[in-house]
Design a protein that fits this description.
348 residues, mainly alpha, 60% helix, elongated
């Protein structure tokens, strides 16, 4: 039976190596080549640029263009031509398109808050994370509320919608009042020329694609990418939000992640729709058309425009942002006619 011990054998081998002049351990260590270390993995690709599909930017510009044109209508009508031109400005919107544009415009406003944008981009630190976050945002608007400055961004989105609705409502009220004020002018009582053609043009405008003014489109394109933000200031807004404000915040969050590219338009379009607001605007348009159908003199056209094309539309947009138009002041009640009293005759 062998009594060979490994430690003793190892000592004998080392002694033999030293005696024969073999290189020592230190020399062997110096001769060993260092093992090359594998390079670290490359960092994940950064998110794409902040932005929206260009079709949504065009929708936002069309909304902006319409609201600016209509709010600029003056109540100082001097002739039938001025009434006709004002009608052309006020009638040219399609309810569904106006809602699409309003949400997109409010999303651009929300993107002004750089802390909100930065917090989303920091969380989306890989393509997989960004895709997952975009899916969460689409499924649940409350997911966005946990990010830094989400309430500031929501306040900006609301500011982009509510005050404009109120301005349109107030301007419409002034135009409606003008319908009574101009009745002392002879031209206002003259019948509108081509009554059927005027109504047909108004109905056609309700179904046309809304067009944007070139300068408005250039402004929105600059604003969504950051170099030229919209001139808007608003206080933070805590939830709950109206559907339009919540959807604008969702859309802005996905845009901040760089996940709102041109080819994402179709699956993001659901965020720019709201049936309640669209139905409200649709009712305003129908009332406008019905009013025009029975209006004949110019002052009646002014009334239809002020009440239905402007006041009703402004009220829809204001309420969609969580604002309530001021209540209408009822006219003073007429005093009941006095019953003549009978004099009492004395029998004396």
């Amino acid at each position: 039976m062998s009594t060979f011990h490994r430690p003793r054998a190892l000592i004998l081998l080392l002694a033999t190596a030293l005696a024969s002049g073999a290189p020592g351990l230190e020399s062997l260590a110096r001769q060993r080549k260092p093992v090359a270390e594998a390079p670290p993995p490359p960092p994940p690709p950064p998110p794409g640029p902040v932005g929206l599909p260009d079709r949504m930017v065009q929708d936002a510009a069309a909304y902006d263009s319409y609201m600016r044109r209509t709010v600029s209508i003056s109540a100082a009508f001097t002739d039938a031509g001025a009434v006709s031109r004002a009608l052309d400005q006020a009638r040219a919107y399609e309810p569904k398109g106006l809602v699409h544009g309003a949400v997109a415009y409010a999303a651009i406003a929300a993107l002004e808050d750089q802390d909100f944008v930065a917090s989303l981009r920091a969380a989306g630190n890989s393509p997989e994370h960004r895709q997952q976050m975009a899916a969460y945002i689409l499924a649940n608007p409350a997911y966005v509320y946990s990010f830094t400055d989400s309430q500031v961004a929501a306040g900006l989105a609301r500011e982009a919608l509510g005050p404009r609705g109120l301005w349109l409502y107030a301007d419409g009220k002034a135009v409606r009042k003008a319908a009574y004020d101009i009745q002392k002018e002879g031209w206002s009582k003259a019948e509108v020329t081509d009554l059927k053609g005027r109504l047909a043009a108004a109905e056609a405008a309700a179904g046309n694609t809304m067009e944007s003014e070139p300068e408005r489109l250039a402004q929105e394109r600059q604003s969504v990418t950051g170099p030229d933000p919209l001139p808007m200031i608003a206080p933070p807004l805590a939830p709950p939000y109206t559907p339009l404000v919540a959807q604008a915040l969702q859309l802005a969050a996905i845009a901040a992640l760089g996940e709102a590219r041109d080819d994402d338009y179709d699956h993001l379009a659901a965020l720019t729709a709201d049936k309640d607001t669209q139905n409200c605007l649709g009712a305003a348009k129908r009332n406008f058309h019905q009013c025009l159908a029975v209006a004949k003199p110019n002052y009646e056209d002014v009334f239809c425009m002020g009440q239905h094309a402007m006041m009703d539309t402004g009220a829809c947009m204001a309420r969609a942002a969580g604002y309530e138009p001021p209540p209408e002041v009822p006219p003073p009640a007429k005093a009941p006619p006095k019953t003549p009293s009978r004099k009492k005759h004395s029998n004396a």
